[in-house]
Design goal:
1 helix; ten-stranded mixed β-sheet; four-stranded parallel β-sheet; mainly beta
Length: 286
């Protein structure tokens, strides 16, 4: 299924502004992007990113993805560290992934658009990010890796017919942590797995059980409304050795997309609290 979202990601925001210094603004069109939906604009985006990432430390550079355009991007990584501690990516236009499987040859299918070692990043705007059904977001802890993720905010999004909504997934056997993650002000339209923490991620269903895991903590699901394609609308499935801690579910109303089932919740070793939620999340441990 395709994922269309008007999306706001705010990661590790630290507001610092230079005084009297011109703030760099880089439009991807000025770096050679075409924006016709068929031309590969990946290299133009990377060129624009190089300018933004190289901006002075006392500035807040902005990468402009202009509205009215559709940009085709093959898998790419925006590398840091950058000169500035605050970077703004403004998504006005639409970004689409390749639709042909051959376009993914030589790339990791679990990663489409990656920001690596970038602090103080804000990505916002009214543009759509359409993954064309590809696995554009990777999973933490794969192959026993140590991964660290924190201060992630996903706000003001619409998940329309998507395979997953507000989801956190980690492989068994990894280490590290994922904490201070917020999903709020989310609209769901006939979504599978609307709210889902999965510390047992295994796409091929042939993984061995392992005791170690990436720790998941300080997670907020708030103001999430809409319809679910599955009965278990809220799943919080956590590792028995570590579990998930301080998981909060607040002001959630997820109803069934059809009349033949009702939505329910399911938990495993998840600790936290719930208030004003439909379905109720009585399975959370204190």
């Amino acid at each position: 299924m395709e994922l269309y979202s008007s999306i706001i990601f705010m990661v590790c925001i630290a507001a610092t502004f230079g005084s009297g210094i011109s703030e760099p603004i880089v439009n991807v069109l000025d770096s050679g992007a075409v924006g016709d939906g068929t031309t590969d604009d990946s290299q133009a985006f990377l060129k624009a990113w190089e300018t933004v990432c190289g901006a002075a430390s006392d500035t807040t550079p902005t990468l402009i993805i202009p509205e009215g355009k559709t940009f085709l991007l093959k898998p790419l990584t925006f590398e840091g560290p950058c000169g500035s501690t605050t970077i703004h990516v403004q998504v006005g236009g639409d970004i689409i992934a390749p639709s042909e499987l051959s376009d993914w040859d030589g790339f990791d299918p679990e990663n489409w658009i990656v920001f690596r070692d970038v602090n103080g990043l804000t990505v916002d705007g009214n543009g759509q990010i359409d993954g064309k059904g590809a696995k554009c977001v990777g999973s933490l802890g794969k192959d026993g890796e140590f991964n660290v993720v924190e201060e992630i905010y996903v706000e003001h999004c619409t998940f329309n017919g998507s395979d997953n909504g507000a989801r956190i997934k980690t492989w068994q056997g990894g280490s590290g942590y994922a904490k201070k993650i917020t999903y709020q002000d989310i609209t769901l339209i006939n979504t599978d797995n609307p709210i889902f923490i999965d510390q047992f991620y295994c796409p091929d269903d042939d993984c061995n059980n392992k005791t170690s895991a990436v720790n998941v903590s300080d997670v907020l699901f708030a103001n999430i409304y809409g319809t679910s394609e599955v009965d278990t609308a809220i799943q919080l499935l956590c590792n028995g050795s570590f579990g998930c801690t301080n998981v909060r579910v607040e002001n959630v109303n997820i109803t069934a997309s059809g009349s033949d089932f009702q939505t329910i919740s399911s938990c495993e070793n998840a600790h936290g609290s719930s208030s004003n939620s439909n379905p109720q999340v009585d399975c959370l441990l204190s």
